[in-house]
Design a protein that fits this description.
- By secondary structure, this protein is of the alpha+beta class.
- It has two domains: 5-224, Rossmann fold, CATH 3.40.50; 237-350, Beta Barrel (OB fold (Dihydrolipoamide Acetyltransferase, E2P)), CATH 2.40.50.140.
- 24% of the residues lie in helices and 35% in strands.
- A six-stranded mixed β-sheet has the order 6-7-8-3-9-10, sandwiched between helices.
- Helix 2 (93-103) packs across helix 3 (108-121).
- The model has no long low-confidence stretch (mean pLDDT 92).
- It binds adenosine-5'-diphosphate and magnesium ion.
- Residues 14, 17, 19, 37, 39-45 line the site of adenosine-5'-diphosphate (ADP).
- The site of adenosine-5'-diphosphate has 11 residues, from strand 2 and helix 1.
Length: 353
């Protein structure tokens, strides 16, 4: 079955305010797709257009190739899990899961069959008769998933569903959600401001800023080849050096960074000589060991934090640029103290312009 979702040149305006700039995007059948961006960038607005709670001002949402204009939310093949879960606290687990089926007139026996199967899927087989209010946060989360799946949606919409859980549980639920998506094979559209969630679970991610989709790519490509400064800074940590492009040799870009010298990195997107550009280097790509094909900085250590497997350093170049560095604990030596002068290097191939 075609469970693709196409945002066909949609625009969403609230009065004079454009919440979603014109966007064209196709989410494939069975994909785990995330929208990632800071609070207020328009993520919930996108989900609401897909679910039918909002009608786009321009363009159309198509599900399975079918134009959803004029199709009300309750007639769409979608199901939503809200940030606050919105379970019915005074009902049992089974009553919650079966609610949507009961509304649709499904008989008791088939409802029970469905809820038993779903409780198995979310790994809570013996809890059908428990009161929802007696469950833990993680268990409630699973019941919300089971309830959303009960109506057999082709597309499951998840609006920051893990944000209320503590860190450990949140990380555990990532694996579970991914597993449930794999087992059911339905399209998951997940929204989050947490890049860790988006990167670990998704087949592809759309990074958003201020109502605009900045880049759509698989997690590794997003991390390694961000196409805008926003994506480079929002997805993972990055050191940014501003300058102007002095030379282009194939994919190798030479950026004149003033007193820091000429830094070399790999170009992403269309670049031209003379253009202002930013060269990005990830903290984990900076090393204490000199490299051949690369650049070095003389820095002063400002702060050093031992994190177990690795160390993070805050350092400052002679010209006042601050630099975040992450190195393996095995590279630690006792002369690395605040105020110490050291030299740091990076490989040209690891920098992105
Ligand atoms: P996110 O989910 O990424 O935090 P939202 O989609 O909720 O962001 O909101 C995007 C922007 O649209 C925000 O600036 C928000 O204030 C605005 N907005 C959302 N819904 C409405 C509405 N019904 N009327 C007016 N403005 C809205
Ligand atoms: Mg939101």
């Amino acid at each position: 079955m075609d469970s693709s979702v196409h945002l066909d040149n949609v625009v969403m305006k609230f009065g004079d305010f454009t919440a979603i700039q014109q966007s064209d995007l196709k989410i494939e059948s069975g994909e785990f797709f995330s929208f990632l961006g800071p609070s207020g960038c328009g993520k919930t607005t996108i989900l609401n257009m897909i679910s039918g709670f909002l009608d786009p001002t321009e363009g159309a949402v198509k599900i399975g190739g079918e134009d959803m204009r004029g199709v009300p939310a309750n007639k769409r093949p979608t199901s939503m899990i809200f940030q606050n879960l919105a379970l019915f606290p005074l009902m049992t687990v089974a009553e919650n899961i079966e609610f949507g089926l009961e509304v649709r007139g499904v008989n008791k026996r088939d409802r029970k069959k469905a809820s038993d199967r779903l409780l198995e899927l979310v790994a809570l087989p013996d809890s059908a008769d428990k009161q929802v209010s007696a469950l833990s946060g993680g268990q409630k989360q699973r019941i919300a998933i089971a309830r959303a799946l009960a109506v057999e949606p082709r597309v499951l919409l998840l609006d920051e569903p893990l944000s209320a859980l503590d860190l450990k549980l949140r990380q555990h639920m990532r694996t579970e959600l991914k597993e449930i998506q794999r087992k059911t094979g339905i399209t998951f559209i997940y929204i989050t401001h947490d890049q860790g969630e988006a990167l670990t679970m998704s087949d592809r991610v759309a990074v958003m800023s201020a109502g605009q989709i900045q880049q759509v790519a698989d997690p590794i490509t997003l991390y390694r080849e961000p196409v805008t400064d926003f994506v480079a800074s929002f997805v993972g940590e990055n050191n940014a050096f501003k300058g102007s492009i002095q030379d282009i040799n194939g994919s190798e870009i030479v950026v004149d960074c003033g007193p820091l010298g000429k830094l070399v990195g790999k170009g992403v997107g269309a670049l031209t000589k003379g253009q202002e550009a930013t060269l990005f280097i990830r903290p984990e790509h900076i090393s204490l060991i000199p490299v051949v094909e690369g650049n070095s900085f003389d820095v002063t250590i400002k702060e050093i934090n031992f994190e177990g497997a690795y160390l993070t350093l805050n350092a400052e170049t002679t010209y006042g640029h601050s630099l975040a560095v992450q190195i393996g604990s095995d590279q630690y030596s006792s002369n690395m103290t605040p105020g110490a002068h050291i030299s740091l290097s990076y490989h040209n191939k690891d920098a992105v312009v």
